[in-house]
Design a protein that fits this description.
The protein is built from 8 helices and 28 strands. By secondary structure, the chain is an alpha/beta fold. Helix 1 runs parallel beside helix 6 and helix 3 runs parallel beside helix 6 (297-315). Bound molecules: adenosine monophosphate (AMP) and magnesium ion. Adenosine monophosphate binds at residues 180, 182, 184-185, 197, 199-202, 245-249, 251, 294-297.
Length: 406
Amino acid sequence: MISVEEAQEILLANVPERRIEEIQLQSALGRVTAEDLVATLDIPPFNRSAQDGFAVRAADVENAPVDLDIAGESRAGKGMHFRLQPGKASVIMTGAPVPEGADAVQSIELCQFSDDRNKIRILKSVRVEGNIAAKGSEAKAGEVVIPSGHRIGPAELAVLAIFGYGRIRVYRKPSVAILATGDELVEFDQSPGLDQIRNSNAHCLAGQLRYLGLSADYLGIVADDKKKLKEKMLLGLERDVLILTGGVSMGEYDFVKDVFNDLGFKILINKVSIKPGKPTVFARRGDRLIFGLPGNPISTLITFECFVRPVLGRLCGMKKPELPKMKGRLLADATHTPGRTGYMPGWAFWEEDGWKVNPLRWKGSADIIGFTKANAAYIFPKERDSLSRGETVEIMLLPDFMVRCQ
Ligand code: AMP
Ligand code: MG
């Protein structure tokens, strides 16, 4: 059986070529640029005042306090467009262009009007360029401001707007379908009959995909029947990536892998030494990918984060979509059946002396209710059967780490 790391290597070697599309600025949040974006103008576009105050010639106020005549006013959107003469000052607002002839701005707190408000007393000297953001000091026209391969956050949206980028080229999101398998499953809005349970995995996966910025077509529940499974899978294979849950273990009704073979897919991962989540399957046919995730709810959740996220994130253009892992101290003893690397639910937090994680009580890989108390998974090395309080462990923060802390 291959290790988690070996499985991840196989996955990374099988990320199909990414495709590119053009989208609008308004829908660019979370997308990854597929082109270098250059400054289309100098920023600031003019020498800009960083303060409300007075534009002056630094040489005039060298021996402050000095009194200067007020020659005019420059405000944001309406600058003073004549040259400031020696011995004069102009009223200026934050964001306004500094008039020609002035080379510094003194802030209003260090100035005092004369009684008739015709003169201004500058109380303190100011250095050349003081309180001025020079034209082009933040970006020069032609310079790359957002490189290709950069994920767009709110600040980047602002930058796109600054340079007038209404449309940009980004990596295309893969299309994804989710299919739940199992004779026992009914939908959340149905009452489970004898021996039935509600399908919860499809909703968990949809949420995990949303955190990655993706949406999926939900293809419903398919019974443990080879023919029906094949039909539904054919539908799912119209998408780039098909995610199945259930049916991949060794049970008598677990046909998923047979159908993968029938459909001409090559199974590249069959089992991984991870707990929960051993019977994870990954198969490929050309650019089409299928993930078969084990049906136990936490197995589905963990294997998605460990194996599906790295591939989907890369298809979206992300450089490192893996969840962050940090080292931290375990706050209680914990046990584990050795043999497979454990991803155990925990509550992680940071204190001045580092990361800590509280192991949570849970009733095994079906216990998604217990898992709602987790914001992280701590990693149990495969050769260990117990960990002691105070030991250093690896902690993988879950995507809802921030949400859970709010
Ligand atoms: P399987 O991987 O099909 O052997 O399923 C393992 C366990 O997960 C069984 O107890 C299933 O009933 C349960 N299970 C499978 N699919 C789902 C699902 N979509 N939602 C909730 N539980 C599921
Ligand atoms: Mg099943």
